[in-house]
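Contributing new complexes? Match this layout with adenosine-5'-triphosphate.
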Amino acid sequence: MSDCIIECHNLETAYAASLNRPILNGINCQIKRGEFVVLLGLNGAGKSTLLRSLVGLIKPVRGEIQINGMTVTPRTLPKIRRDIGMLFQGGGLIRQLSALENVLCGRLGVRTTWQTLLGFPKRDRLLALDLLEQLGLRELAEQKTSKLSGGQQQRVAIARALIQSPQILLADEPITGLDVVASQQVMQTLSHLHTQQGMTIVAVLHDLGIAAKYAQRAIVLDAGRIVYDGICDNLQAQFANASM
Ligand SMILES: Nc1ncnc2c1ncn2[C@@H]1O[C@H](COP(=O)(O)OP(=O)(O)OP(=O)(O)O)[C@@H](O)[C@H]1O
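Output block (do not edit by hand):
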């Protein structure tokens, strides 16, 4: 099995007239299995676009992406997506459903309509409850997610992403809008997945201190290009020349 789990070769996405350039412009990077990488950059640098490209939500106009050695194409996407969990800013939960039901939604991609029509199979429910337990939310399993705090909601979203046992977790601004305590809980959860389960994590963050505390490696984007790729030392300096 190759060491690299994510590879981008000369990745270029569509030209944006408003920017006068492609949104991503010649991205080359390799992420190794089990790495915790943070994606940094000013607003509009292309971080979300890069994450979304990895799961085929954005089609490159040039270059290619390989996940687990497989080139991302419409044919390989269903298999590739089973290996990737995705976490969005704010969690993206269904507010009127319970924490448990939201976690079970992570199984919709692998269950047929018939299999879920009368409720999810018992083993899915047990798995969802187990994940909620691991994330310290077992008592809140039946609670509507609209009643949970921001940090609790984000941990439900992590459980939802984990129910498909992904090898890779992509997190787009997972702590934006959370207070210090909730941010720490979410980052510690990601860190735990990385150290205890060897999960590959790529997270978009804005806080350089938190990035340096949890990630092993930073990739800094500026105007659609990678301008730094390395250890999380002195990240402040990497922003000194970023286009404002
Ligand atoms: N579909 C689109 N059409 C045109 N421009 C787009 C499209 N999607 C994104 N952009 C532009 O591409 C640039 C990069 O967007 P992206 O969301 O990837 O940036 P980001 O680094 O994640 O920014 P932020 O930190 O603000 O979330 C932005 O200037 C955005 O306006």
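Reviewers usually confirm one structural detail per submission. For this one: The longest strand covers residues 4-12.
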